[in-house]
Amino acid sequence: MHRIGFISLGCAKNQVDCEQMMFRVREAGYELLPDPDGADLVVINTCGFIDAAKSEAIDHILAMGQLKQEGRIGKILVTGCLAQRYQQEIMQEMPEVDGVLGTGSYAEVVSAIRQLLNEEAVCRFGDIHAPIEECGRVLTTPEHYAYLKIAEGCSNRCAYCVIPSLRGKYRSRTLDDVLYEARTLVASGVKELIVVAQDTTLYGVDLPGHQKLLPQLLRELCRIDGVHWVRVHYLYPESITRELLDTFVEEPKLVNYFDIPIQHIDNVILKRMNRRSTRKELETLMTTIREKLPDAVIRTSLIAGLPGEGEEEFAALCDFLREYKLERVGAFVFSPEEGTKAAEMEHPDESVAAHRAEIIAEMQSRIMDEFHLSLLDKTLEILCEGYDPEQDLYFGRSYADSPDIDGRVWFTSEKIAKVGSFVRVEMEELIDGELYGSAVWEEAV
Asked: For residue 3, what are the β-bridge partners?
């Protein structure tokens, strides 16, 4: 039995792709290793979205190449967005790589592995616009939460983004397929379903009827016995409808966590980047969310240094953040990606953009502290995720915290708090940006 190792890089959607490949490989009779060292073949599922992601992928390929040179692993197969984006360059410039699979060929991973183990070359790039092929998964997240990918690709065509050329047009999974997988995940012990797609708000528009089905899907997910939290990522602002907001109001299992990537608020910049919202519309949306859901946590991503951003535009962005006090903000430096319209536009120097991103991060740190201080003396439901024996503290997440993105809540408990259980914790202190408290009761769900 050949031993296969997997390395997954990038976003949660990429992680789901890797989990599906692992399922196919296991079903074919191969042994999955928890660590690549000692594998007969290592699959590196890459991200190629921005420069930082490309660098991370290349570093992992080189590290595996070193293990290969030392005789500690066998073949190397590179899959995912970096492979799709640099189809010829990887094989030509990275001799340690034995084969590549594009994002349209994930389903061919088993036959590709067989070819490589038989000393045959592999270089496959299938149709990135093809319908989604349903597949099982080998979960790599903790048992109590899982990502639920409801669509593949993107048709938004933002001027700075290469995703449509790497992932294809937007394709929704059927409602029945998504719900079947969700029920299977919950039956296996998953307590929190995290709904993901490049743009979750467009779910269903490409299916018969061309309706936005996200509200219906979320209501159906909340009806599954055993699920405790449903979290949604990547809600594009122009498609957040009154029906969707009402769904959040009416469904208690649907956590009030809004991940809304806006990138900027200047109207000229938004139009040049082919974004479909105006500043006024974004401000109205933020106000409406606050009115309907006073405890809502809003996350966004911003790009510092977009084409057209001068001092005035940046100052306006900072004013917006000060006024609307979004609880979670990630600021990224504009990366001019080849093949995009934005790469051809004049933009601020990278050092200027990096400085602006630092300013946003510093300002956001104060806003986050202000939010966390407002939670002191309140009791929150915490999903317990572990215990630190050195500190003699449990840790977990509240509704305001998404895994691997946001922070932790630390707490003491007189009773044993099981991983995956929900614990009522009274918030008592804020230390270095993280909340500390004491369990007031526990309930395993």
From this structure: 31
